Amino acid sequence: MINFRDFLNSFRFAIAGLKVVFKEEQSFRIQILIGTIVIFLMLAFHLTILEKSILFLLISAVLSLELINSQVERFLDIIEPRYHPKVERIKDISAAAVLIAVLGAIIVGIFIFSPYFLAFFY
Known about the structure:
Elements: H1 4-24, H2 26-45, H3 49-79, H4 85-121
Helix pairs in contact: 2-3, 3-4
C-alpha cells in the first residue's frame, strides 16, 4: 500500500535540494536560465513534438548531471576537506560529464533551431 505522507515528503526533500543548489550553484542558475530561453524559443518557433521532446530531454539531462556533479563535490568536500589531487581529479571528471552533456545539447540545439532561425531571417 502506498503511504502518501512519505510520498509527499519525498517531494518536499527534492524541492529543498533544488532550493539549495539554486541558491549555492551559479552554474545551475545559468543552466536554468538557458533552459528557460530554449523553452521560449520552442514556443516562438512552433517546433515539432519530436523536437520539443528532444530539447526537454536534453535540458533535463544537463540539469540532472549538474545536480549529480554538485552532490559529488559536496560529498568529496566532507570526505577530504583539505586539498587532495585525487579528489580534485574526481571533481574534474564529474564536471567533465556536465560539460559533455552541455556541448551535446548545444550541438543538437543548433541542428534543431538553425532551420527556424534561417527561415525567420530570410
